[in-house]
Amino acid sequence: MLLLPVLLLLMQVPPVPAPARPDPVPPARIELTTPFPVHLGSVGPREAREAAFGIKSIHDRPFHLRVLDLSLGLSLDEAQLATPLQPGEVRLVTVKVDPTGLVGPIKGAVRLGTDDPGQPNYILRYDMMVRPEVTVDAERKSLGEVAPHESPELSFRFRREGGDPLKLALASEPAAYLDAELVPGEGGSDLRVTLRPRRLKPGVTAGLEVLKVATNAPKQPLFTLYLDWRIALPVVPEPSRLVFTEPKTTLLTLELRARDGKPFRILKSEVRGRGFQVLDAPAAEAPRQVLRVRRTGTAVEALLLVHCSNLEEPLQVPLRFLDPKARPAKGTVPAPPPAEEHHHH
Question: Where is this region: Disordered (predicted)?
Fold first, then answer.
């Protein structure tokens, strides 16, 4: 019975607090009087800058500062730290920043130590955006809709900021229907590209070109550029080619639609090659025409020519038969199925 009162007394005694742990980081003895971190903004690839840090002593006695570490591209004249910092003194410490060899968002710092073991180390931070040496006005451009008789041209404009004179070279072979040349100019160079629609294979109505350009900039040895285009025919075939993929499929339909929505007539249609036949005779004038094409044999390919009243030249529609049972001859590679859009790499 005596144990119960003892336990109750022990429960009423407040626990002894654990001794406080000393702060592992001593309190700061300086204040920064300039904005922190220092933002240097957009900097050229060889544009030297200065970052300035205002340091005010809130210590009760003099102390020395010394440099412990510097980020890449920084230099600091330690004569600025030769004399001790007096209580209440404000000193401006400047750091030279050389962005050579750097590119993109950069963050750096100066780490300072003191001769007072009761002080922490101090880190002075800065940031900047280093512009690349070589720039191009756009990595992707478009020729938009192109008429079959046009030869549109556009340029990719390259510039170099600082460093050696800019040198460019084509690192990829352009397609046969493209003319590409590098034209040096004042303050930069142009990659001039011209599309020649008359060199396109029948049925090719759009493309996404991939052009590679090599430079003499160490950080940017290669640029990959993209150029898209689409042929604007007065009569739009849907699909742009007829492909028979199954032996049992012998009939496909080709729809012809006037781009401007106005009626037109099919004057005549003809097949160049064997194994295919057009079933429909020319119909009355209409903004939409339909032709049925029959496969009559095992010929691999032919070309359908459709003469229309609103076309100067006949519309060319490739006809293909991809027989799954056919095997390529030994040592040859089978041709891939045609795609609706042409992509050149």
Answer: 326-345
